[in-house]
Amino acid sequence: MQMPDRRQLRRAIPRPIRQRLYDLSPSRRRRWRETPGLRRIPAEAGVALTFDDGPDPVYTPPLLDALAELGATATFFVVGERVAAAPQIAREIV
20 and 46 in contact (C-beta within 8 Å)? Predict the structure, then answer.
């Protein structure tokens, strides 16, 4: 069985749906301009550290200690239920 080529695939997806998927793409440059609080960091300036799904009483404190030791900052995306379960660790993150 032969795979369809790119043009055949494009024709199979209606244009309004293709445009909507394109508009939702997070890689769009305009997303940076439209989302308040986000900014680009030049590559020569360093890296942006993000951590997800915390706070966790086992893993978050050592991570915070390591960041403090290095003088580094990070962005934490936390889960509300976990914040309620570990409010002191959430305060340390802040």
Answer: no
Q: How many Å apart are CA 76 and CA 64, to the nearest integer?
A: 11
Residue 39 — φ and ψ, nearest 5°?
Answer: -145, 155
Sign, CA dihedral 82-87-90-92, equals: negative
pLDDT tens readout for residues 41-83:
677 777 778 888 789 999 999 999 999 998 888 889 998 999 9
Bridge-partner residues for 77, per DSSP? 52
**3-35 as b/e, with b when 16 or more CB fall inside 10 Å?**
eeeeeeeeeeeeeeeeeeeeeeeeeeeeeeeee
d(CA 11, CA 4): 11
Taking the CA of residue 28 as centre, how many other CA atoms within 13 Å lie in the half-sphere pointing to its CB? 13
Question: Per this entry, what is the length of the chain?
Answer: 94
